[in-house]
């Protein structure tokens, strides 16, 4: 290879430089997450680190392309290792959320079946590379016989459809897992871990946007017009930005507290009795819970949950859940926070804002954050805390 050919790589241009910087920063967070996994053994760190590593790997292949690798090294074999790994990222996303939201989760050997397609794909690409490498003239060309006559015309188009179906299914399962978990938190806990839950939702939305953008790009390329390498750049820059965002938020958001939450039974669902239907909840049970809340004020404890309240009332968790949901027509979260909102209103009515800030009063009444206080107050009182304060 001539010296003149060598000096054309690397080419730091308007396409390659932003990708290079973003991918490098993404790899830093991959290293941080995998290092933390090695130290603390949190499976969520491992899954998130592997997700970012796979996306970064795919971006590295595109980055070196924009830097002139393919033009300089015409017989490069990198196409064999441009392996579409959407079928690996999708189950990793599912297991990442599962490892955060299920306290008893353990990755078992049978879970490896979720990765059967990407493992088979790696074995397949290695096999065709080995076969082509044994053919005469392989070193003088970029792609060998099987890569040209089997992989590109048949395997890659079929794999694109399989990856679409797999990703769609896993994203659907993961969203279902998340919303079910969030609903259970409202049934068990009086403060809803808004920051951590918002991170999980943002994480899922980020990869859903990537999935939709990639699908739209594939439809345009296969149905309407072929897209050039440069036209596909914007998907790659979006992927790199998502890696950086997910790396930063994922590393610095403490999701360990969610894994510590335990749900030992299924809460009784909220039901509205029919006109002639007699509720199984007695008025005495409802009155007992109401009196305890008003006299003992357990809602002042920001860590109050269904388990601790049931112990205080000497009831079973399922019994208390049924009383709250059927007797009061609310989930546990709204039930407890309604008392907190009333307590805030009472303190404001007594002029306590002269000694304490509005946030200080919220903390005194059992709220654990400004964001939660503002959201809950507006939801239950229909106006913001500031508007309520002005009204009195």
Could you walk me through the main structural features you see in this protein, from its secondary elements to its overall organization?
The structure is a single chain. By secondary structure, the protein is mainly α. It is 68% helix and 0% strand. It contains 17 helices and no strands. It is elongated and about 90 Å long. The termini are far apart. The relative contact order is 0.09.
Order of helices and strands: HHHHHHHHHHHHHHHHH
The number of helical segments is: 17
- What coarse outline follows from CA principal-axis ratios? elongated
Contiguous uncertain segments of 5+ residues = 1-7
Major sheet description: none
Q: What Rg is obtained from the alpha carbons, in whole angstroms?
A: 28 Å
Name the structural class: mainly alpha
> Helicity range of the residues?
55-70%
Strand composition percent:
under 5%
Number of strands: 0
Mean pLDDT across all amino acids = 88
Fill in the keyword field for this structure.
disordered N terminus, 17 helices, mainly alpha, elongated
Brief rundown of the structure:
Helices cover 68% and strands 0% of the residues. It has 392 residues and is mostly helical.
Write the layout of secondary structure elements.
Blueprint: H1 3-6, H2 16-40, H3 43-66, H4 69-72, H5 86-101, H6 116-133, H7 145-188, H8 194-224, H9 233-252, H10 256-259, H11 283-296, H12 306-313, H13 317-327, H14 332-349, H15 358-364, H16 370-381, H17 385-391
Helix pairs in contact: 2-3, 2-9, 3-5, 3-9, 5-7, 7-8, 8-9, 11-13, 12-13, 14-15, 14-16
